[in-house]
Write a structure and sequence with these properties.
RRM domain-containing protein, 4-stranded antiparallel beta sheet, disordered N terminus, alpha+beta, 3 domains, Alpha-Beta Plaits
């Protein structure tokens, strides 16, 4: 990025980005031996045969927990953007209480997106609770305007991981110090990676922290 990062931090780009750059071999999904091995691993760990992710990654397997500890929901009937009428998604929350609240809201029809009433069930690939943590999908970034700007930050992020943005809020510049709020779609592998990438690639003049709130919290009744 043109500046010397703090020596105590280092960050390796995600495997998906390294594959896109040709620095890691592709997944060889058409190789019969790889296909067979993937199916065997998925069967062993109870992963859906339609799952297209990496079944060898422990985080993609079902957690060894009781059903009433699972915080992962499989949400259906989400409006699709292209080619299909609807789509689905996995949603994992931090606590069982939060997951149960979302489950109840969807089940009684409180969540409707573009005319589609969502449906959900508990995901059979279970995820263990993480507990209440000050880890958010929202990052607050403060620093010199030369570093804390959309072009500089976006280039860093695109070069290091794959992500989806909810919103970017510009809080303005005061005396050469810029403040940006990046609202990622997820904490894991998005806000988390962005935090690490900033700590590794930017000078100590730039400060980043996880927000102590989520916009969805402010919308609760």
């Amino acid at each position: 990025m043109g500046n010397s990062p703090p020596a105590e931090w280092s960050f390796t780009p995600s495997a998906m980005v390294l594959q896109q750059r040709g620095l890691l071999p592709p997944n060889n999904e058409d190789d019969p031996d790889v296909i067979q091995a993937r199916q065997e691993v998925k069967e062993k760990f109870g992963i859906s045969k339609n799952y297209r992710g990496n079944p060898w990654v422990e985080g993609n397997r079902s957690a060894d927990i009781a059903d009433d500890q699972n915080v992962s929901l499989f949400v259906q009937k989400i409006p699709a953007e292209y080619g299909h009428l609807t789509c689905c998604a996995k949603v994992a929350l931090y606590t069982r209480e939060a997951a149960a609240k979302l489950y109840d809201q969807i089940s009684i029809g409180q969540i409707v997106i573009r005319g589609h009433r969502l449906r959900c069930r508990w995901n059979r690939v279970k995820v263990a609770p993480r507990g209440e943590q000050w880890n958010s999908r929202i990052l607050l970034i403060v620093g010199p305007e030369s570093e804390v700007n959309r072009e500089y930050l976006d280039k860093c992020f695109v070069n290091n991981f794959v992500y989806t943005m909810d919103e970017i809020v510009d809080h303005g510049v005061v005396n050469g110090i810029a403040r940006l709020e990046y609202r990622f779609a997820s904490f894991l592998c998005q806000a988390q990676f962005a935090y690490q990438a900033i700590r590794s690639n930017f000078t100590k003049a730039t400060y980043v922290e996880y927000a102590y709130f989520d916009p969805c919290e402010l919308a609760r009744k």
